[in-house]
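New to this. Look over this protein:
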Amino acid sequence: MGFKKLLAAMGAGGASVETVLSEVNVVPGGVVQGEVRIQGGSVPQQIEGLSVGLQAKVEVESGDQEYKQDIEFTKVRLGGAFEVQAGAVHVVPFGLEIPWETPVTHFAGQHLHGMHIGVTTELEIARAVDAGDLDPINVHPLPAQQAILDAFGQLGFRFRSADMERGHIRGTRQQLPFYQEIEFLPPQQYHGLNQVELTFIADGREMDVVLEMDKKPGLFSEGSDTYRSFTVGLHDYQNTNWAAYLNEWIASVGSKRNWF
């Protein structure tokens, strides 16, 4: 973001701030590095606290309504209080760890529409909080995630959409207050199938992969054959032919239901 004038609780002559990211392309479990640059104004100024975090724009369902909510899902305080002298530049470097569960925002060379994740900057000044703009980051799939995404492509599935939903998927290792769903449209040979939804929930060692076919409210449950959850190691995923695995599951369900 560009320099943002800090007006809260300080009036004219206040400092301005800019957050600069060294690299916007990251993967879950990685680190986004950057620095916060505070440009002193015409008078010295006491900064009581400085922090950076990650924020996502998430869908929330409440009754019959659905709306978007900004959720900060990690936050790091950068040192203690300090004073910025008039006209001086105070630079604070940081490294912000990307949680393993962080949703993917880029796939197959494209930004997934609706995925908004970025770095937030927050300063505490005279007991007031001044939040900066969101600095977007690009979260790319882990190799194990990429293998499964590629498998859908090998079977002829087409990416439809992605969203982040507030809530928790039972029986998974989920820690964040939201999860991602990636929706695929099937090729012609699966003509009885409307779509497949894919969710990754990883930690540093392995990940839960949640698949659901043709999701309709109240129609499917976790115990049905249209729902599948399995664990994939982040370092031994190469031992499975994922296109064959997915095709076998889809064909098995489809034959039972006379879809194709």
Q: What stands out?
A: The two ends are 51 Å apart (CA to CA). The first strand starts at residue 4 and ends at 5. The mean pLDDT is 88. Residues 192 and 257 are 9 Å apart (CA to CA).
